[in-house]
Structure formats: structure tokens, C-alpha cells
Amino acid sequence: MNTQTRKQSARAEMVLTCHCAVVSCGQTVRQGETIATATVPDRGDIHAPFAGKIVHVDRYRIRIDREVGEIVSPAILDDLSGSEFRDRLAKMGADLPVVTNTDRLIINAVDAEPTVMSRQCLLIEHDETLKAGIEALTRIYHPKDMNLAIPDGMNHIMDGMETTIISNDYPAGLDPLVVKAVTGEELPDNTIIIGLETVFHVGRIIETRLPVMETMITVKNTGRIVPLGTPVGTIIEQEGDSIQDRDRIVLGGVLRGEAAASPNQGVARDTLAVAIVSNPSPVAVDTACVGCGECVRRCPARLDPAMITSYAEFGQYDQAAAEHVGTCFECGLCGYYCIARRPMLQYIRLAKAELAKTAAQTDEGTQR
Questions:
Q1: The CATH number of the domain covering residues in 82-205
Q2: Is the entire prediction scored with pTM above 0.85?
Q3: Mean of the per-residue pLDDT values of the chain
């Protein structure tokens, strides 16, 4: 499970999901310079992974060509704590919850899917960086209790943290189920859960005093540290593989992952794995629900995915909200077991995105 590195790509593509570009085409940027700011509170800004020239900007992506250039000055982070420290780390690229005090902080070191092992690699090979990240998080959230959730079969201890063993059965490693396993409650008050990759990002900020410019991904059961924005096609080529007709490049695991828009799409902070699914079959299609009830039976959140996705399919997002789409933790089991091959998880994510957009517009109108 040795972490591997490769020659860096000459181009980076930064995907803008909850961000707004603050650079323009033709602009020269330093390594670590802010190129997009977050538009939602719990996401960090995006920074140039290397010095270069902006060659493309639109609402969905920024492309940078590598050039010889400067790097931003290291930040001064000493003596910061609470919300001020959290906001500074967010501006440097850390995705952190917007609270400053909590009763319990849970660090989730369990990989979300069986084919993903990024968190295991971090836990084994980057202990000092993780310790730096956890120390920084305690300065922000001042938790009374801290728990480290690790998968069954691993033996890892961190000072000041109680270790909780989590089953390897999917989807036990997803955040809501880890919270329940640790606390015994489904929605406990004053509890924060943070993924190990975010702890790693925070730790790298503390060690380097520079913004987040790299992340850990899984490729062929191996952990790799890659610069953010590295095209997924480049990563696959570096592994000696080639992309054939009908192949799909999947970012993440096979149940919760998303197909890359193109081989040029770059990895993001929340990209945990890159893999090729060769000649996928059967492919999800927009067929009607047959009412078998299999998705309801399989749903660990006890929802009705058939109703939620039907509402989302026809743009009835308020009805999807009434069916508690917001409590879905996107395990993907409904789509996996759907005999009609409906894109269940995609419809659920669509409904959540549209509801979030409406909420943001409402908040903006209220502030005016």
C-alpha cells in the first residue's frame, strides 16, 4: 500500500462546483494563488496547483497551463483559534463545518466504498500530518470528546482520541452511519464528523503554511498523492492504461462515484479514487419505475427512493423535500438494485442541488 507519486501534468483543470472564478483567461498566476472562491459556507477556496497561465475560464471549470513562476508567501497561522482560524483555513482550501464549538468531534478514517482505500493509506503513511491536522481542528472546535473511527481489521491509536471500530460491510463507513455507531444516536446534537482527507489537507496547510494544492486518491488499489486539477486521463495513462470506446472514467467508487465529463477533468479535493469501468452494462436509462419496491427495502435511511426520484425526474423538488430527500446519504444502493436501471442516485443529487439553489436564492432575497 505504498503511496506513489508521478511526474506532474503540464495542465490542470479545476472543476467549479460550489465556487466562483476570480481569474480571467490570459492571466498569469502564482502557485497557491486563489483562483476561485467558495459560494457555500462549508467549502474552501480553490488555488492554482502550480504557477502558470489561465487558458480557459467558464462557470464550470478553470484550466491552467504550467509555466515557470513564483509561489505565494507562507501564511502566518500562529495564535489563531476558533472562527478566525477556521475562516483562514477555508480561504486556504480546507472544507470545514461552520461552527466553533462542539461536544464531540469524530474523525472518519473509514473508506466510503470497498474499492476506495485513500483513507487507509493516509492513516498508515501520513501519521504526523494527520496529527498536525487534528491539533488544528481542536483549536477551532474545542471538542469535549474526540473519536477516531477506523475500519475493522486496522489497529491505530491517536493520542487524546477514543478509537471506534466500524464494520467493513457497506455502507457502514458513510458519515451518518459512523455517527450512529460512535454515539448510538442518528442525529446527535453538537456533533461534527470530518473525513480523514480533510484532516490531511488541514495538516498539510499547517506543515507548509501554503494552501491545499494536492490530495490523496486511490488508483489500482494504491494510494497516490496528486496535485489538484490533474486530468484523470493523465492519471490513467501514467498507470499504463488506455481508454477504449464505451469506457467510463469513474471518480470515486463504483456505487457512489460519478463519471468524469472527459479525460481532461481534473481531480478535486473530494475525489477519493479514479478508475476505469470498461464497457459498463447495463447502463442506467430513463425508464419508468416498475414499482417493485426493491429500492425501499434496501434503503438504509428508511426512505422511499422511488417516490423521491420520480418527483425529481419531473422537477417537483418541493415534493422530493417533503419525502426527506435531504436525509439521504447517497449510498447508491437504490440504483444498484433497481431492476429498471433508473439513475436513482443522479436524480437524488439533482433534487438536492436544485433545493440548495432555491434556498440560496431565498436567503439572498431576504438579505436584500
A1: 3.40.50.11540
A2: yes
A3: 92
